[in-house]
Automatic annotation (TrEMBL):
The keyword NAD does not apply. Pfam families: ANTAR, GAF_2. It comes from the Bacteria. This is GAF domain-containing protein. Residues 172-233 form the ANTAR domain. One of its GO terms (molecular function) is kinase activity. SUPFAM superfamilies: CheY-like, GAF domain-like. Keywords: Kinase, Transcription, Transcription regulation, Transferase. It comes from Blastococcus tunisiensis. InterPro entries: ANTAR, CheY-like_superfamily, GAF, GAF-like_dom_sf, GAF_ANTAR, WH-like_DNA-bd_sf.
Length: 246
């Protein structure tokens, strides 16, 4: 084999390996396609297996630049760090979702960008972090956060693989949320249909008139129409004023 061919082979092997890894990850995530919570947990577990030098992983949602909500994690450490960032109003996760697509921290203890967070995170045993923007939906954003107990643990390969992984994860998560929303919509339609059927049979109303009754009660009680329909379907009675919300 010539030197040129050897160099081509050396370049192709990591590329092929990464392709194989991502294909395996895609298959693993597809198994959770209809369950958002299951998908989130599957992403965190797969990230630790996939991204070099990652010890732990967490997924956070950041809402309105202030509220940090931990949605999935591989250990309590990830949850604790999410709470820490929300309490302090600073940290790499928040920067990843609002300022930069990727935030890398080689030495948490000495990083000057978030002094309070750095001091407390280092005390918890975290030395390196790698955070990726996962999605942006209005004022709700998601981040994929990787943690290591070693200093300067994440290198360029970790960052490149992590970025590709985050892209795959974002697509899988969007698909799961879309399917969940469709299922919820179908369930809501079924509940409303049941409630309409009860009203139509009991009061000899048309479908349009029965829907009008549900809509009027929903407005009067300041409740969602589907909640009114669900109570009627479960109890057989139209919700009354005692259910009115303050």
């Amino acid at each position: 084999m010539t030197a040129a061919r050897r160099r081509e082979s050396q370049v192709a092997q990591p590329t092929q390996l990464l392709g194989d890894v991502m294909s395996r990850v895609a298959r693993q995530l597809q198994e959770e396609h209809g369950d958002v919570e299951g998908m989130l947990q599957a992403i965190t577990a797969a990230a630790v297996r996939t991204v070099p030098h990652a010890d732990e992983c967490g997924i956070t949602y950041v809402i309105g630049r202030a509220k940090v909500e931990s949605r999935a994690w591989t250990s309590e450490l990830a949850r604790t760090l999410d709470s820490l960032q929300e309490r302090l109003g600073q940290g790499p996760c928040m920067d990843a979702v609002w300022e930069e697509q990727v935030v890398r921290v080689d030495d948490v203890a000495s990083d000057p960008r978030w002094p309070e967070f750095a001091r407390e995170a280092a005390a918890l045993g975290v030395r390196s972090m790698l955070c990726f923007q996962l999605f942006v939906e209005g004022d709700q954003l998601g981040a994929l956060n990787l943690y290591s107990r070693g200093r300067a643990a994440f290198d360029a390969d970790s960052q490149d693989i992590g970025l590709l992984f985050a892209s795959h994860a974002a697509v899988a998560l969007a698909g799961a949320e879309h399917e969940t929303n469709l299922r919820a919509g179908m369930n809501n339609r079924d509940v409303i249909g049941q409630a309409k059927g009860i009203l139509m049979e009991r009061h000899r109303l048309t479908a349009e008139q029965a829907f009008g009754v549900l809509a009027r009660v929903s407005q009067e009680l300041n409740r969602k129409l589907v909640d009114v329909a669900r109570e009627l379907a479960e109890t057989g009675g139209v919700p009354e004023g005692r259910h009115r919300r303050d």
